[in-house]
């Protein structure tokens, strides 16, 4: 939240109280508690009256992680949803000298200076990584009279910030104001479906704000030499995570918040969707499936989007009998063709659904404060929202999913989960509605994922999810949301996927050829290349079918060729997935994550590493021109194109033209991903 008016003044309607210095401190075995007056330092006992204090608690949930909690007034937070963290009670060292207190966890040390100003300095393995100094810790009252707790860390010369979820804005977050608030805004705005209050700095630290609500970041956009972060309320907890590299920090962060599981091998193949509002029935479905087979295009998963159910009744979890008179038979036919299937669901229940009356009578929906069911019309007419804080509602919802699994459904596309109300509503367990807005998606996706683990086994469980928050990486896979069918949208999707990977998520997909509009044959072929060199690959659209023969015979050839290429890469992808599971590293990696010491890679957001050994630079130009950078893998040896065999010397930029059957897909020197 911005509250300054230039360097000297405060914005109209805002007021600020800065923590001045540390007046006294308490040291326990695993905790350092500091008491800081507001306004000016205390020099005598009389100055302790009427001013208030900021209580600062320093602890460590895991080695190499130091957590700071800023508290104004103590609140009962038992009604607040919270992220599940894998805490290990590490051994810490706390010491006091004449000049400072030090708090050490693993190789990360926080030094807190004594004196007339608060000064927090973090060092990892003896090297400074982060600093918070004068007028950083504050209480801010906004023009509506609401209190916010705020803190700041220095933004150094050449320092760059990455992550904060799947964001479609510039990959380097410097200069941006970021609200951690899940919204259904498409891919063309600063809004995001997957907001994560965690960022990585190229100075080798990460910052995680442990709050599921609206965390606001000002990354050099309030004070240009600082990263500011704030939350509404009386307290804020955040953790600084240290490491020798951003990879190492990401590993520690995901150890704390959860790591992605392995996904079934069939999920790496091509997923084909009916698209969103298109009209389809059993004949159309089998026509698409058989059409792919006739053209010798291997297909792995067929996805039924919303119209497997009757319109106005989403969700009723009931096949539309006018289109699918024998759904069990259809699913069996798909299985006999060697395919898995996926069906679209969401957590919303339209008033016309057969489930609405049942859910309302049993109290399974989010309610208004007067006890009535909360409803609105901004999706399905009169729709309600399942209250996943109610265990009975979870079991009820899961029961219908289990019926679908018993019928032959293999997995679910968990759409939506972002439009969650905060005003005038109440949850079964009394959760704070504002803090539940982002956290809702965690409960939703977990409820669905748990069904698949129970019925299919953990090695076969997989979702296709749109919304997420901290810890959502444990319920893969996620896709990028509603993108347009043009090159800028293709590029913004990639930027978002790279940011998502810098936020702790291991797998990622996107709508090949764009969701909105009809792609040109050119775009369809170029996005097909990109999509089939992503961790997961799905054709999907809004009003248009996305089967390749609708875009020309060459599109069929391109689709076949790149599906076959990805099939040959599956052993390599499985090896990379094991690395994702073990370390928290994403399968699709930004260049700076893989080559942090190469300054050229810091800003690149138009190419990526697919695992350790494959560099991919999608073509974003209708003339077929690609501009890409080849880093030095450490031995000065050339990289080679996986398709053409052409070699490229490292440390150089290249601009080349490619036909639809090739693109820059380069193999690290000495690697052989086709024989993983």
Automatic annotation (TrEMBL):
Enzyme class: hydrolase
EC code(s) of this entry: 3.2.1.177
Gene Ontology molecular function: alpha-D-xyloside xylohydrolase; carbohydrate binding
CDD domains, alphabetized: GH31_N, GH31_xylosidase_YicI
Domain Glycosyl hydrolase family 31 C-terminal: 584-671
Catalyzed reactions per annotation: Hydrolysis of terminal, non-reducing alpha-D-xylose residues with release of alpha-D-xylose
Keyword Secreted: no
Glycoside hydrolase family 31 TIM barrel domain segment(s): 261-573
Top-level taxon of origin: Bacteria
Biological process according to GO: carbohydrate metabolic process
Record domain Glycoside hydrolase family 31 N-terminal: where: 55-218
InterPro entries: Alpha-glycosidase_related, Gal_mutarotase_sf_dom, GH, Glyco_hydro_31_C, Glyco_hydro_31_N_dom, Glyco_hydro_31_TIM, Glyco_hydro_b
Annotated keywords: Glycosidase, Hydrolase
Matches recorded under PANTHER family: GLYCOSIDASE FAMILY 31, MYOGENESIS-REGULATING GLYCOSIDASE
NCBIfam families: PRK10658.1 (NF007940)
Family recorded in the similarity comment: Belongs to the glycosyl hydrolase 31 family.
Name of this chain's protein: alpha-D-xyloside xylohydrolase
């Amino acid at each position: 939240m911005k509250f300054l008016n230039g360097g000297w003044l405060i914005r109209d309607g805002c007021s600020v109280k800065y923590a001045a210095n540390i007046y006294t401190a308490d040291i326990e075995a695993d905790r350092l508690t500091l008491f800081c007056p507001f306004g000016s330092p205390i020099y005598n006992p009389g100055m302790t009256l009427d001013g208030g204090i900021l209580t600062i608690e320093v602890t460590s949930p895991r080695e190499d992680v130091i957590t700071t909690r800023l508290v104004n007034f103590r609140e009962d937070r038992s009604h607040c949803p919270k992220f599940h963290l894998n805490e290990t009670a590490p051994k810490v060292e706390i010491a006091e000298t004449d000049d400072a207190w030090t708090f050490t966890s693993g190789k990360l040390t926080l030094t807190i200076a004594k004196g007339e100003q608060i000064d927090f300095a973090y060092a990892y393995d003896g090297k400074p990584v982060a600093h918070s100094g004068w007028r950083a810790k504050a209480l801010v009252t906004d023009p509506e009279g609401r209190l916010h707790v705020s803190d700041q860390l220095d933004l150094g010369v050449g320092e760059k910030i990455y992550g904060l979820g799947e964001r479609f804005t510039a990959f380097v977050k410097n200069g941006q104001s970021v609200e951690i608030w899940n919204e259904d805004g498409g891919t063309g705005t600063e809004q995001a479906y997957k907001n994560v209050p965690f960022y990585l700095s190229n100075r080798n630290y990460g910052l995680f704000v442990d709050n599921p609500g609206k965390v606001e970041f000002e990354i050099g956009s309030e004070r240009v030499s600082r990263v500011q972060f704030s939350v509404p309320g009386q307290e804020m907890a955040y953790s600084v995570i240290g490491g020798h590299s951003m990879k190492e920090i990401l590993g520690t962060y995901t150890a704390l918040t959860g790591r992605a599981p392995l996904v079934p091998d069939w999920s790496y193949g091509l997923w084909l969707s009916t698209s969103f509002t298109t009209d389809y029935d059993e004949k159309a479905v089998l026509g698409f499936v058989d059409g792919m087979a006739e053209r010798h295009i291997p297909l792995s998963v067929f996805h039924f989007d919303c119209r497997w159910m009757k319109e106005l009744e989403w969700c009723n979890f009931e096949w539309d009998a006018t289109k699918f008179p024998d759904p069990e038979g259809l699913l069996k036919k798909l299985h006999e063709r060697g395919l898995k299937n996926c069906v679209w669901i969401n957590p919303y229940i339209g008033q016309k659904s057969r489930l609405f009356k049942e859910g309302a009578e049993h109290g399974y929906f989010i309610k208004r404060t007067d006890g009535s069911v909360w409803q609105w019309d901004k999706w399905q007419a009169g729709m309600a929202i399942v209250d996943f804080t109610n265990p009975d509602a979870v079991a009820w919802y899961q029961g219908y999913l289990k019926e679908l699994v018993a019928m032959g459904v293999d997995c679910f596309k968990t759409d939506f989960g972002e439009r969650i109300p905060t005003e005038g509503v109440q949850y079964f367990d009394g959760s704070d509605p504002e803090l539940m807005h982002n956290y809702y998606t965690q409960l939703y996706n977990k409820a669905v994922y748990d069904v698949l683990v129970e019925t299919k086994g953990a090695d076969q469980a997989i979702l296709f999810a749109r919304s997420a928050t901290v810890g959502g990486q444990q319920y893969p896979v996620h896709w990028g949301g509603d993108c347009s069918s043009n090159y800028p949208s293709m590029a913004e999707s990639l930027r978002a996927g790279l940011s998502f990977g810098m936020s702790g998520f291991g797998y990622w997909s996107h709508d090949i050829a764009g969701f909105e509009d009809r792609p040109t044959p050119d775009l369809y072929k170029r996005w097909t290349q990109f999509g089939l060199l992503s961790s997961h690959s799905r054709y999907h659209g809004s009003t248009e079918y996305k089967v390749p023969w609708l875009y020309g015979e060459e599109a069929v050839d391109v689709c076949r060729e790149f599906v076959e290429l990805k099939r040959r890469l599956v052993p390599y992808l499985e090896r990379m997935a094991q690395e994702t599971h073990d370390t928290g590293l994403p399968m699709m990696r930004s260049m700076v994550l893989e080559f942090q010491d190469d300054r050229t890679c810091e800003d690149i957001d138009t190419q990526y590493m697919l695992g350790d050994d494959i560099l991919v630079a999608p073509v974003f130009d209708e003339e077929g021109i690609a501009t890409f950078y080849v880093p030095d893998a450490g031995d000065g040896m050339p990289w080679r194109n996986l398709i053409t065999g052409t070699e490229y010397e490292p440390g150089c930029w290249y601009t080349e033209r490619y036909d639809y059957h090739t693109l820059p897909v380069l193999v690290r020197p000495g690697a052989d991903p086709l024989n993983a």
